Amino acid sequence: MLICTDSKSAVPREKVAYVFWYDHVKGWWEKKQDHPILYLFYEAMKEDLKREIQKVMQFLGKDLMEEVLDRILYHMSFDMMKENPTTNYKMAPAFLVEQGYSPFMCKGIAGDWKNHITVAQNERFNADYEGKMAGTTLWFPTEV
To answer: Which InterPro entries does the entry mention (predicted)?
Structure first.
């Protein structure tokens, strides 16, 4: 069940399990002003996973041996994570994740959205995004 809230909602925001995606993302983006937060994007990980793992290591002030980094890269590959029940949500209770409708991890192809929505739908999404994300510097890459 997904509960969305907005300014007209009769349910106080602090009483719901989920909020609008825009509110969630903007809230965490704004927190970067006061807290050290590292933002990573799927497309960047698809482009160069090792570089992105190294960003995490640098952010955490850690240094790993090359063998450890190689094991991390292996286990973080999309194919490995898709088969791992601890990362593909197969272990999640059915009331949280409906596995029969669509698997949590689909294809792992950056930019595949172009095969599923029309140009007109993309234009509507972009207009909605620009309106709701106005005032932020947050930009999401959509392809590699």
So the answer is: P-loop_NTPase, Sulfotransferase_dom
Name residues whose C-beta falls within 8 Å of residue 53's C-beta, 6 or more positions apart in sequence: 69, 72, 73, 76
* pTM of the full structure: 0.65
Give, in degrees to the nearest 5, the angle at Cα 92 between 86 and 96.
Answer: 145
Q: Give the span between the Cα atoms of 83 and 86, in whole angstroms.
A: 9
Instruction: Round to whole Å and give the CA distance between 137 and 134.
Output: 8
Note the pLDDT tens digit of each residue in 22-72.
Answer: 888 888 888 888 888 888 888 888 889 899 999 999 999 999 899 999 999
Which residues, in sequence order, are CB contacts of 113 under 8 Å at separation 6+? 122, 142
- Sign of the CA dihedral 74, 56, 96, 43? negative
User: Cα separations (Å) of 20 from 52, 125, 132, 141?
Assistant: 27, 14, 11, 20
Overall average pLDDT of the 124-131 stretch:
90
Give, in order, the Cα–Cα distances in Å from 21 to each of 13, 44, 138: 13, 20, 13
Q: How many CB atoms lie within 10 A of CB 31?
A: 11
Q: What is the pLDDT of residues 61-71, one digit of tens each?
A: 999 899 999 99
